[in-house]
């Protein structure tokens, strides 16, 4: 009922309006009700006072529902015991019972309403004039049972709606957490690919520079220049990847197959000659497919650089009608040149997860004629 330590003014205003309407209606309509009930006591000042007490008690019905019901019940029972006509004062009693049923748990609401019902029945047996007796119990009970039942239904409906909203909020929070986790895993995979490839190339170039430095320092300078270029490119790509997690950072274009020439040149500086073949007509690909294909090639060539012990590798990119395939092969020592389907570290697992997420397939393993092969097929929409 409170918000920031203050009563909610819209609800207080609604209660005030209801109380004033019932007050005005009771004062005006009770006289008409008396005209149709000849045996009732005439409307006088005491009658109007009781009507006013019952109506104005509703001003605090939300803040003190039990107290409101008690005041309204006492006023209504006194009104009926004196013998005033049945009339609008019973509407105030109905509202008070409904309020208790809505705002209190069922057990205390039932106890409070039961006490009000017992007090209301006093006029059935003790009222001035001809008392209706047991025949008046059923009509009197209707003024209690009906609003109580309606109030309980409304309360249960509100609680069910609140539970549904809470469950939906928890579901949205859980979905947001899952999306955040997936995004963190994606960023971690991107960082692994970028850093792993860059460090592998830098390590190979550094070994070349160390080997050439004592005998041919002029060629060692070429290797050191390649190290500088590779590290700068890797840092730039890492900066783009990490920029995705900064709030408000602008997303730069993600890597794709268009960067294969730069990748080939970078690996050439590390001592690995890469031949790139393109089959079919190159076309624009979905960003996710383009990135996945590039990462597969990058990780496969990194493994060649690390494990194969050869100076060359081949990359084949095949643009098919409804699929893009990439294949990386080398002439290394077969199964020892890289991780197989049942082995391997995070790089191969990352490739497989990336491809599987797009509904594609990935096969890796030694070639029959020697060397190692990585093959990925990624579905794409047919070209129109």
Give the key terms.
384 residues; alpha+beta; five-stranded mixed β-sheet; two-stranded antiparallel sheet
Along the chain, the helix and strand elements come as: EEHHHHHHHHHEHEEHEE
Structural class, please?
alpha+beta
What does the average pLDDT come to? 79
Number of strands: 7
Strand content: 5-15%
Number of helices: 11
What can you tell me about this protein's structure?
- Residues 159-193 form a coiled coil.
- Its EC number is 2.7.13.3.
- This is histidine kinase.
- The protein has 384 residues and is of the alpha+beta class.
- The chain has helices at 9-35, 45-56, 65-82, 89-103, 106-120, 122-126, 137-212, 217-243, 260-269, 287-308, 346-357, and strands at residues 2-3, 6-7, 273-279, 312-319, 323-330, 361-366, 372-379.
- The strands form two sheets. It has a five-stranded mixed beta sheet, covered by helices on one side.
- A hairpin with a 3-residue loop joins strand 4 (312-319) and strand 5.
- Helix 3 (65-82) packs antiparallel against helix 4, helix 7 packs antiparallel against helix 8 (217-243) and helix 7 crosses helix 10.
Could you give a short description of this structure?
The chain has 384 residues and is of the alpha+beta class. It is built from eleven helices and seven strands.
């Amino acid at each position: 009922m409170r918000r920031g330590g203050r009563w909610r003014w819209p609800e207080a205003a609604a209660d005030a309006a209801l109380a004033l309407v019932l007050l005005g209606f009771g004062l005006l309509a009770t006289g008409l009700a008396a005209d149709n009930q000849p045996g009732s006591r005439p409307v006088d000042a005491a009658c109007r006072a009781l009507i006013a007490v019952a109506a104005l008690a509703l001003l605090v019905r939300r803040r003190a529902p039990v107290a409101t019901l008690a005041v309204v019940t006492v006023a209504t029972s006194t009104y009926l015991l004196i013998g005033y006509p049945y009339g609008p004062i019973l509407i105030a009693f109905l509202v008070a019972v409904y309020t208790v049923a809505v705002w209190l748990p069922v057990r205390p609401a039932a106890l409070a309403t039961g006490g009000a019902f017992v007090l209301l029945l006093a006029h059935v047996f003790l009222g001035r004039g001809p008392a209706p007796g047991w025949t008046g119990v059923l009509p009197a009970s209707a003024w209690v049972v009906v609003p109580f039942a309606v109030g309980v239904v409304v309360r249960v409906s509100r609680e069910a709606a609140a539970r549904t909203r809470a469950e939906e909020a928890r579901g949205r929070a859980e979905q947001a957490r899952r999306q955040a986790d997936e995004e963190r895993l994606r960023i971690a995979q991107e960082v692994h690919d970028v850093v792993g490839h860059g460090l592998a190339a830098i390590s190979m170039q550094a070994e070349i520079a160390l080997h050439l430095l004592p005998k041919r320092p002029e060629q060692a300078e070429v290797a050191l220049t390649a190290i500088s270029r590779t590290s700068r490119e890797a840092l730039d790509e890492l900066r783009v990847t990490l920029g995705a997690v900064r709030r408000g950072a602008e997303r730069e274009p993600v890597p794709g197959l268009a960067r294969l020439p730069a990748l080939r040149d970078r690996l050439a500086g590390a001592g690995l000659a890469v031949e790139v073949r393109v089959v079919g007509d190159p076309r624009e690909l979905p960003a996710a497919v383009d990135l996945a294909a590039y990462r597969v090639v990058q990780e496969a060539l990194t493994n060649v650089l690390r494990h194969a012990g050869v100076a060359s590798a081949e990359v084949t990119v095949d643009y098919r009608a409804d699929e893009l395939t990439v294949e990386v092969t080398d002439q290394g020592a077969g199964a020892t040149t890289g991780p197989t389907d049942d082995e391997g570290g995070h790089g191969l697992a990352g490739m497989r997860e990336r491809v599987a997420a797009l509904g594609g397939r990935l096969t890796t393993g030694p070639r029959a004629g020697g060397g190692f092969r990585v093959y990925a097929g990624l579905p794409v929409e047919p070209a129109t």
